[in-house]
Amino acid sequence: MKIPLMKIGIMTCLTLGLFNGQAAFAESGITNACSSFGEIQPNVNPSHKQINCLLTNAAIETEIPPEVVKAVATQENGDWRQFNDAGKPIISGDGGIGLMQLTNKSGYDQKRLENDIVYNIEAGVEVLGGMYSRRDLPKIEGAGRRVIENWYFPVMAYNGTKPVNSPLYQESGKRNVNAYQEEVFAELENQSFLKSTKLAIYPFSTLDFQYDRESTENIIFKKLEYTLTDQTHDSVYWFMPEDKVVTTSNANIRKEINTTVGAVLVPPNTSLIIKGNFDYHESKGNKFVFYPVQTEDGKIKGYVSSAYISNRLSSVVQR
């Protein structure tokens, strides 16, 4: 976790009952969705591929872009691990537990947060989803849950709406690139778009935020709706078979997911048809997914990384 103080914000919200606070997640749907990768063993980290699947499906069940959930998980726990090499739960110096680095509070079972990676993931995703429901946090005009940029402030709140996470430095008006949510979204661009796409930027003003940098009080948001002029980005995890997509940059259409041998390179704005459900890559460097696709003429078939496709023609914001 970035700073100990931020956990206070999360736990205060839990105490106020903003979330369902399920004491148990029973037979988890995400466990069933990822069962083909093997049974989850006690005190053993699942494979990268299986954790990717668990995070993805937990996000989809809660209608949060998986890109966002995976970036938060990476910011909290870069190796995506619940247990250390000795099989003990990972607990940070500030008390953050496991993969999603949650601190126990009313409604969540601390031992399960420590020892059950599925429970830990679903609890973290539930907390993040609850932040989206807050009415004191800004949103993008006309944007819904599947718009990645619309999660900027819920991601901030996951860490805490404290002065340290102000989007701008109050004194200079410069962007606070060290804010938690800025680091998460930089990670998101890196791991889900492979730096080929830049997310839309909010037109912030220092007048939008009221706070005392020397205080531990939360930021008061004076502006609760933003109109973005840059192109926003929908999550790519809800594509269905026969949906049409386009490539956002040069992209390899692979014959097999785990190798580029025999892959065909296609240019930006190549139209593709989704031919089935996405699947996962073995490598820890791949935190995205792969869709089976074919070109509209059917001449090229294979798998494309979700990092290189969109539901709209590419007018990529380059900076």
Provide key terms for this protein:
319 residues; alpha+beta; Lysozyme; SH3 type barrels; 2 domains; two-stranded parallel ribbon; 8 helices; 26% helix; 11% strand; disordered N terminus; disordered C terminus
Given the C-alpha coordinates, what overall shape results? globular
**What separation lies between the terminal Cα atoms?**
29 Å
Total of domains: 2
Second-tier CATH architecture of the largest domain: Orthogonal Bundle
Radius of gyration: 20 Å
Describe the sheet with the most strands: 5 strands, antiparallel
Number of helices: 8
Structural class: alpha+beta
How many beta-strand runs?
Answer: 11
Q: What spatial order of strands do you see in the largest sheet?
A: 10-9-8-5-11
Under the CATH scheme, which class of the largest domain? Mainly Alpha
Beta content: 5-15%
- The helicity comes to 25-40%
Q: Determine the CATH topology of the largest domain.
A: Lysozyme
Q: What can be said about this structure in brief?
A:
The chain has eight helices and eleven strands.
Walk me through what this model shows.
This protein has 319 residues and is an alpha+beta fold. It has two domains: 1-235, Orthogonal Bundle (Lysozyme), CATH 1.10.530; 244-310, SH3 type barrels (Roll), CATH 2.30.30. The protein is 26% helix and 11% strand. It is globular, with a radius of gyration of 20 Å. Mean pLDDT is 90; it is low at 3-26 and 315-319.
